[in-house]
Design brief:
alpha+beta
């Protein structure tokens, strides 16, 4: 198998800019009603209206990223590798994004690099394999970030997404459901079992962080405006499973 370091060079994305994000979360059984509301109020994304999202999340030995979420810190950071598509849809190679997300209050920024790696490496290699922290450390140098080998994978989170544009409110909208952590770093979490959330989340991203004028309809559909982190929720259930 070719190692990721032997693939195409990383290409820097556009310079990061802070965007405000608001989330409505609620029970997954409300998805049909919420999707119908979004169909009526928004336009499907032109390029990627629907898809499967896969992310390998990294954290430090003391789980700093999880602690920042648990403590409600105003400053937060997440590190992940992301790719798109179901496993059976992937060919021999897959486009992989290396992402560093920062949050200041409700504002967030994302630095992103992309490359092409073997699909069987990113999709099937055990998360305790040393190739993961070595890969991240190399790409962190390209981002100019001080991320060393202490950052290692903790879990893979998978979910389905519908994407929309709100033409009146100017928001990018995403509806995520079927959220689950199906794999864990077994060296760090030997007790781990797959986690599936019974919640979904609808995200609105725009410069002002203002929910749409029709947000009350989201509440009537069963959602409420609140903080929601897929990584935080999955890791909370993982840690509960240790007890």
């Amino acid at each position: 198998m070719l190692k990721p370091s032997m693939r195409l060079p990383l290409l820097p994305s556009q310079a990061p800019a802070y965007v405000n994000e608001r989330k409505f979360a609620g029970p997954v059984h409300a998805r049909t009603r919420v999707a119908a509301l979004l169909d009526a109020r928004c336009l499907p994304d032109r390029e990627h209206p629907a898809g499967r999202i896969n992310s390998v999340y990294f954290d430090t030995p003391d789980l700093r990223a999880k602690a920042e979420k648990d403590n409600g810190d105003n400053l937060k950071a997440k590190v992940r590798l992301r790719w798109y598509g179901r496993r059976e849809e992937l060919g021999g190679e897959v486009r992989l994004f290396v992402e560093l997300k920062r949050r200041v209050g409700s504002a967030r920024s994302k630095e992103r690099l992309d490359t092409v790696v073997p699909a069987d490496w990113i999709a099937d290699t055990p998360l305790d394999d040393p190739s993961f922290p070595a890969f991240l450390a190399r790409q962190a140098e390209r981002l100019g970030e001080p991320l060393g080998p202490a950052w290692s994978p903790v879990c893979r989170i998978v979910y389905d997404r519908l994407r929309y544009d709100d033409p009146l409110g100017g928001s990018r909208v995403a509806l995520d459901w079927n959220i689950r952590a199906d794999r864990f770093n077994e060296s760090r979490f030997p007790w781990a079992v797959p986690v599936a959330l019974d919640e979904m989340v609808c995200e609105f991203k725009n410069p002002g962080g203002i929910p749409p004028a029709w947000a009350e309809e989201m509440v009537r559909a069963g959602l409420r405006l609140r903080s929601f982190s897929k990584y935080g929720e999955c890791m909370a259930r993982l840690c509960e499973g240790r007890l």
